[in-house]
Amino acid sequence: MSVPDRLATALNRRDEVPNQELAHQIVRENDAAAVKELIVNLHHKHKGIQSDCIKVLYEIGAANPDLIAKYYREFGKLLESKHNRLVWGAMMALDTITLREPKGIYGMLSKILKVADTSGSVIARDQAVGILVKLEPSRLTNAIALRC
Predict the structure, then answer these.
(1) How many CA atoms lie within 13 A of 29 on its CB side?
(2) Which of 122, 30, 118, 28 is nearest to 68 (CA)?
(3) What is the pTM of this model?
(4) N or C: which end of the chain has fewer CB within 10 A?
(5) What percentage of the chain has pLDDT greater than the value 70?
(6) Is 2 exposed, middle or buried (0-12, 13-18, 19+ CB in 10 A)?
(7) Cβ contacts of residue 69 below 8 Å, gap of 6+?
């Protein structure tokens, strides 16, 4: 069974349990191919599949950030999405990988701060704060000073 077929939407479920179980299995098996399939399906035509994919990815990141860290650019691109679930889900994923990819995350800090300021999502703001806390303090102070 393919990864998208195991997502809550594909199973006609309205709860997150299938997505959480899939994330746990991917982490247990260290399944990089499944992670790649989830990344590809972030652009699926069905928004439910997109939402389920980001959910599974940030759950994976919470358990094993190394499995998703190399996809930080893809998460950064999602910050421009019109689909708010993808925006705050991407922020959650970025927060889980900040310590693994600090240079890459720092490079998109202006975009992260803009989303935190303009998205209207409390979740996105909370995750942006989590990212800021994890970044190197001296670089962070310089970035904040430049914004003021």
Answers:
(1) 11
(2) 30
(3) 0.90
(4) C
(5) 91
(6) exposed
(7) 61, 97, 100, 101
C-beta separation of 88 from 119 below 8 A: yes
Which two structure tokens, joined as six digits, stand for 75? 């998460």
Residue 17: exposed, middle, or buried by beta-carbon count in 10 A (0-12, 13-18, 19+)?
exposed
Banded pLDDT at 136 (limits 50, 70, 90): confident
Positive or negative: CA dihedral 142, 64, 71, 47: negative
Q: What is the DSSP letter of 7?
A: S
Residue 120 and residue 131: Cα distance in Å, rounded? 17
Name the pLDDT band for 9 (thresholds 50, 70, 90).
very high
Amino acid letter, residue 22? L
Tokens matching residue 85? 């679930």
Residues 17-57 pLDDT 10s: 999 999 999 999 999 999 999 999 999 999 999 999 999 99
